[in-house]
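We close this part of the discussion by returning to an individual protein. The sequence in question and its structure tokens are set out directly beneath this paragraph:
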Amino acid sequence: MILTIALNPAVVRTINVEGFQIDQSNEANQDALSVGDCGIYSAYIVKLLQGDPYVMGISGGIGGRYIKNFLDKNKIKTDFLQVDHETKTHLFIHDSIHDTTTKILSHNNQLTQRDFINIKHRIYHHIKETELITLTGDDSWSAEFIRDLNSMTKNAIRIITAVEGDSFKACVNERVYASVMDLDNLKALGFDFPEDIDSFERIRNFRREHKMKYLVIKGQYEIIGFAKNKICKVNYHAKDSIYPIVKSMILGGLSIGIKRNYSFETMIKLMGAIANNCSSDEYPFVIRRNEIDRGMKHSKLYEIYNQRNGYTIEGV
């Protein structure tokens, strides 16, 4: 079983208006609701690829029921802690005439100490049947979760993170097997986007010092994977323009690849195929299995570095 701990899951409401006017009555010509970019989609990918996901986290209000319904429809097992407040919501008001987007974030549902203790107890009951754990969200308790999971299993469990926000730096200093990072995460670490050898070397050293098996970076148009002896890249073009869901989707690809002992190159190609084809535009169909299979065949892998030959001209 792959256990997904989705802290602070969110819903996204996207409203399209022609000529949005502040302090005026505006009529929407499109109003769409979807699950936000979080561990829910990681579990979705695991299920789509015939894995066995199990989702834990917090759930509250109408948004929480909406997320639970999405998981139930996809036959994904859950064990949510119910809270008495609404789930975090991202509201996007897009003006199609002026091509502007107004963003509103509501209900930043951070865990309380009691929530943390309750979820930890629930996790303890599932830990024996768990092969792999993924952790997502932006919560002050994230690092403590990793610390306790490692202590609970005596560092035997493999933990993969795709954490956001202020909690990210604390999490990467804990023992994790692999991590998916975006450009904001790199910036928090003081790293430039890896476009030259010096930047690649700094990230290689970071992976080695933190004893990560894999470090995956999601750029705007590329996914770059760092392993012990290799750096590989695939290019992608996200279908979503307002609210992409790529990060959590490729986390699912990485976790299923690790569980099945895929080669490093195969995992990178799998993540590229997922990134190229995922979209919430046809929600609840965010991606189809045949799209991933086709994408794997057409993904072009670039080898940036290998231990024998060093950095290659083609990759850089």
About this structure: Residues 192 and 199 are 6 Å apart (CA to CA). The radius of gyration is 19 Å. The chain has a mean pLDDT of 92.
